[in-house]
Amino acid sequence: xxxxxxxxxxxxxxxxxxxxxxxxxxxxxxxxxxxxxxxxxxxxxxxxxxxxxxxxxxxxxxxxxxxxxxxxxxxxxxxxxxxxxxxxxxxxxxxxxxxxxxxxxxxxxxxxxxxxxxxxxxxxxxxxxxxxxxxxxxxxxxxxxxxxxxxxxxxxxxxxxxxxxxxxxxxxxxxxxxxxxxxxxxxxxxxxxxxxxxxxxxxxxxxxxxxxxxxxxxxxxxxxxxxxxxxxxxxxxxxxxxxxxxxxxxxxxxxxxxxxxxxxxxxxxxxxxxxxxxxxxxxxxxxxxxxxxxxxxxxxxxxxxxxxxxxxxxxxxxxxxxxxxxxxxxxxxxxxxx
Length: 338
Description:
The protein is globular. The protein has helices at 9-18, 27-36, 43-50, 54-64, 78-85, 87-103, 113-134, 139-148, 152-160, 162-168, 175-186, 190-200, 205-212, 226-239, 250-253, 255-263, 267-284, 299-330, 332-335. By secondary structure, it is mostly helical. The chain starts with 8 loop residues before the first helix and ends with a helix. The relative contact order is 0.11. It has 2 domains: 9-23 and 108-329, Hypothetical protein af1432 (Orthogonal Bundle); 24-104, no CATH class. Helix 2 (27-36) packs antiparallel against helix 6 (87-103), helix 3 (43-50) crosses helix 5 and helix 7 runs antiparallel to helix 8 (139-148).
């Protein structure tokens, strides 16, 4: 299939909305978004909304009372759980859970939804852990961005169907290669669809930008503003491949360099990052148990991801040295040693 004989899938997305196929936000999510826009919202404001979702309220209490947080007195109310876990953390988890619950309603024949949602959660936690290290003031926004940056996949599954599901099931291509193939095959990609969804849901502007542009590489240096740092975090978390791709792009080869220059993380640093991601995943996955049919043992996935980054760094270094050798061969004066 080429771009000349594809359906207009942008129009197909609009028709999905008209037909009511794109789920509207549940009342809890709408109220949470309203509170997110209110700088004066308190613990009790958020607690009262979360209490209306009994499942989420129960899970938050469970997490707050886990050994990890070591509370002297057990949290017996949602407000105390919010206080123990932190307002911004609870806000991002509760909102993310409700948004993913809405997307979970989509039908997806021939598509491994459980693996997909688990990978969305991993990207979200990579975002939060990078935010913790790189820009703490946006770490919860980084979590939500990572959680939702592939949300457009669910829309394109509805608009395109089996050919799209087949593309996303291809484990031999990197995440960025897949993004390129979406454009080639369907003249649209999941980022456009995610931006489309973010605007329909009227998500906060601070999220819409990074979600809509998470495969756009910004400056190859630490950003100066928190807004730009969020874009950089979204790019890295969105570029990660959690399989062992045989087909990669130049952008994949540059990712380890990007990580080192932007976040000052070498192979050892990313290994430590992924260890913290694994630990947080194990704490957080309980909160999303209604969405995830089965949690993953992500240790091997993250080891593999770090191995891929390391190998890409070595490949990039080899390529640079090969070009350097060619230049020296072409210029005899460069090889002359007095």
